[in-house]
Amino acid sequence: MKGKQLTTIIIFLAAIAIGIYVIYDDHVAQRGNDSQLEQYLENEGIETLPSSEQSIEVGVKAIDFTLPLYSEEGQMGLSQFEGEFLMVNMWASWCPPCRDEMPHFLKFHEEFEEENVQLLGINMTTVDTNETAISRFIEDFNIPYPVLMDVNGDVYNNYQVMYIPITYIIDPDGNVANIIRGYVNYEILVDHYETAVERYKTSYQQ
């Protein structure tokens, strides 16, 4: 009888110990999530990528590139957009702010389709998860403008990409007119685009 009671007590104590461990483990995990969230907010919606260099700055000539189009034969290069404003959005499928800002790019594309500005998406393929995740991202949003695949990391290296999302506005002469680091909404896109246009016009009036 005493043996059964002892066994029951041992089982009861073991259950308590397991419960305490689960609660502690859950607490540690939550602290980890809170820490990640806090870091995300401190970074203002920017995902940091490994790099030891500074990214290209406003006023310099944008480095030309030619990359394959997503799910299509053929390639597309930066030089093909000469004479137009170009908004280049660099993203990865695992990046939450990249997903959050995508509806705003779609709205900008729709509202400014008749303007002298083109949108171009570039997937940071070398640091993305896999082809399935990339395809799901593109298809979820039904992205209507060209998406290029940085399969060899040419853009990642040449543009020394330290953060994603990052958006470059390139003027008709091929110069970097504006850089938006981190998450953007429609209003920010419009403001940066219109600022780039005004600067471009002013430079020709002088």
From TrEMBL:
Pfam name, any one: AhpC-TSA
Record's keyword annotation contains Secreted: no
Keyword Membrane set for record: yes
TM spans (from-to): 6-24
Keyword annotations: Disulfide bond, Membrane, Transmembrane, Transmembrane helix
Entries under InterPro entries matching the protein: AhpC/TSA, Thioredoxin_CS, Thioredoxin_domain, Thioredoxin_ResA/DsbE_sf
Segments forming domain Thioredoxin: 56-198
Name under which the protein is recorded: TlpA family protein disulfide reductase
